[in-house]
Write a structure and sequence with these properties.
Keywords: Coiled coil, Metal-binding, NAD, Oxidoreductase, Zinc. This protein has 429 residues and is an alpha/beta fold. It has three domains: 2-22 and 235-363, Nitrogenase molybdenum iron protein domain (Rossmann fold, 3-Layer(aba) Sandwich), CATH 3.40.50.1980; 26-229, Nitrogenase molybdenum iron protein domain (Rossmann fold); 395-427, no CATH class. The chain has helices spanning 11-17, 26-42, 44-55, 68-77, 80-100, 137-150, 169-177, 188-197, 214-222, 248-259, 274-288, 294-303, 313-323, 335-339, 356-361, 397-414, 417-427; strands spanning 2-5, 105-108, 114-121, 124-128, 154-158, 182-184, 207-209, 228-229, 237-242, 266-271, 305-309, 327-331, 347-350, 387-394. It has a six-stranded parallel beta sheet with strand order 1-11-10-9-12-13, sandwiched between helices. β5, α7 (169-177) and β6 (182-184) form a beta-alpha-beta unit. The relative contact order is 0.14. The model has no long low-confidence stretch (mean pLDDT 96).
Amino acid sequence: MKVLRFDDAGYSDFVSELDRQAMPGTDLYETVAAIVNEVKQRGNQAVFEYTSKFDKLDLTEETMFVSEAELAEAEAQVEDSVKEAVAASKRNVHSFAKLSMRQDWTSTNAEGAQVGERFVPYDRVGVYVPGGKAPLVSTALMTAAIGQAVGVKDILAATPAGPDGKVNPSLLYALKESGATQIIKVGGAQAIAAMALGTQTVKPVEKIFGPGNSFVVEAKRQLVGAVSIDLLPGPSEVLVIADDSANPAFVAADLLAQAEHGGDSVVGFATPSESLLEKVKVELEKQLAQLSRADYIRQVLDAGTFVLITKDLEEAVNICNVFAPEHLSLIVENEDAWLDKVKTAGAIYVGNYAAVAVGDFLAGPSHTLPTGGSGKSFSGIRADQFQRRTSIVRMDKASVQKSEKYVAEFARVEGLDAHGASVSIRANS
C-alpha cells in the first residue's frame, strides 16, 4: 500500500492528483470510435468479428441471442439458495425503486394555467452486465430489476459468453427474474454500439444502463445522442474515512472486499489516526490469509491502494469531495455531522456495521455508481432514469388573457412577432 502522511513531501501532490476527470486517452477514444463506426456500417458482421477477436467466440444471427431452452436449462441448474438470494435482493430493489419513482403532478401558475409533469417508463432499454472472472449476478438486479419495477416492457441485456457460448446459469436466471426480455451474448464496446445503433437482428434501445470496462464506458460516452445513458460507471472504487471509533477488523474487511474486484480497482483509506492504521494493517494480514483469492487481492493492495494520514477529519472529508469515490465508508464519531459535509460520493455507508457488500448485493439502492471522478456530475442508477419526463400545460381563455401582455413583451424583445400573435389571437377571440 502507498502510505502518505500529511506532512510528507509528496502528500500534497498526491492529493491534488485525486481530483480526477473521467476523460478517455487518445488511444482509447480512437479504438472505441473505430468499433462504433464498424458496427454502424456493418451491423452484425462487425459485432461477430469483434466478439471472435476479443472473446474467442464465433456467433451467428441464430446463436447471438440466449434461447428459451438455455434459460430453462439455467433455471434448472441454479441452486435454491441462489434463487432465494435473488428473490430477497429483488424485493429490496423493487421497494426502493418504487419509493424513488417520480410521480405525476399538476399545479396552477400565477396566470391560471394548469402546469405539471408526467412520467412514463421507457419502452425499450438496454442493460450491460460485464463478464470477466466473476459472474456479476447482482448487477442484473441493480440494473434490469429497477426497469422492471418502473414498468419498462422491453429490456435487452448484453453480457459476454465464454468461448463455449455459455453464460453463467445464475446470471441468466437473475436476468430473467429481473425482467430481461432478450439477452445477447455480446460484450465490450461492440455490445454498446449494437444496442444503441441496432443491427440486422438487434432492435435499438432508447437508453443504456450498466457498468463495464474502459471500452464499454467510452462507447457509452461516444454514443450519447444516438441513445441516452445512465452514467459513466467504470472500475470499482472505495474510500474509507475512519477515526478511532472504527473497528479495525471491519475497516480491513471492507478494503479487502473492494480489492477483490481486481483489475483497475481503487482502494483508499483516509484517517487522522496512525494507531488505527497500524491496527488495520494487522487485520489485513490476518484476514488475507483466510481468503481464497489472497494472491489476487494482494496485487490490488500493492498496486491500487492508497492510505492517507490526514491532519484531521475535516481534511479527510475535503479529500473525499475532491476524489468523488464510487463508495464511501464513513466510520466516525458524530457521524451525522460529518455526513452533512460529504458532497460527492456515489453511495455512502455510515457506521461500523454498514458493510459495502450489503449495498453491492441486497440493500436496495443500485450498486451501479459513478467512478473515475464522474461522481461530481453523475449519480448512481435510480428509478426515475427509467422514466421519460414530459411537461404539460393546459389553459383556458382567462389564463391566456392574463398571459398575453407578458408574452407580447418577450415577443417584441426577441423579434418573434408570430409568437405574440399566436397568443393574441386566442386572447381576443
